[in-house]
Design a protein that fits this description.
alpha/beta; 7-stranded mixed beta sheet
Length: about 230
């Protein structure tokens, strides 16, 4: 069967860990996770991140008191996480998953971007549904604003989380709780104490629709609706 990295050609490489370590600034990602956490009930702790990459966001969720399990298809990422963090890491492909336990929260920041083909995206959303307990929360984060991406020189035609995806999620038994946006500022702002406030301001401005590069869809699994339900979109 097809795996997630056959869809994202060029994603896996010898320097994939170093490449992603250079992209994230811990402090601003911590602000991002703290903001999302405001929309999740405090009593939910059993947490799974799918497609965790270098594990930074899983680490930040663990700082928020979550009992974190992370998964990724890349052995390079899995090996790095085993050496760097203490939370559980599972080598797993979401399209051919072997994870059979339930969680209260499922978070994914990249898989929905990678899975551009709708049939495979539906399959991925079904898996997310299966991972969750009844009334559990699914958090999907992906790039949202193509015009800003083009301005910054990004040429990839990334898939967005759009209205059609929200319809898919509803048909699969999810209730859309909240859609939020987040800005992306240069890492250099966060390394300079004099400029950090400017970075925080730009991240705040990015919370407004059409200004934020990231789009986050927060939804809840509704009791009694099967993840195997047939889905047809017209």
């Amino acid at each position: 069967m097809m795996n997630i990295y056959e869809i994202a050609s060029g994603y896996e490489s010898d320097d994939v860990v170093e490449k992603w370590l250079s992209r994230y600034e811990t402090e601003k990602e911590r602000c991002f996770i703290q903001y999302i956490n405001e929309f999740i009930p405090n009593n939910l702790n059993e947490f799974l991140e799918v497609g965790c990459g270098i594990g930074l966001h899983a680490k930040l969720w663990s700082e928020m008191g979550k009992n974190v399990t992370a998964s990724d298809y890349s052995m390079a990422f899995c090996n790095y996480i085993k050496k760097t963090y203490t939370f559980k890491i599972i080598h797993d492909d979401v399209l051919n998953t072997k994870i059979d336990r339930k969680f209260e929260i499922v978070f994914s920041m990249g898989v929905s971007t990678i899975v551009r083909e709708e049939k495979l995206r539906i399959q991925t959303f079904r898996v997310f549904n299966r991972y969750l307990i009844e009334n559990g929360f699914l958090i999907l984060s992906t790039t949202s604003n193509q015009s800003l991406l083009r301005f910054f020189g990004t040429k990839d035609n990334l898939h967005l989380l759009d209205k059609r995806d929200c319809q898919l999620l509803k048909l699969l038994g999810f209730r859309i709780v909240k859609i939020v946006y987040w800005g992306v500022t240069p890492r250099s702002l966060w390394h300079n104490p004099m400029l950090k406030k400017a970075g925080e301001l730009l991240e705040y401005i990015g919370r407004f629709p059409f200004l934020g590069i990231r789009k986050v869809v927060i939804c809840q699994k509704i009791t009694g609706i099967s993840s195997e339900k047939e889905v047809t979109l017209y």
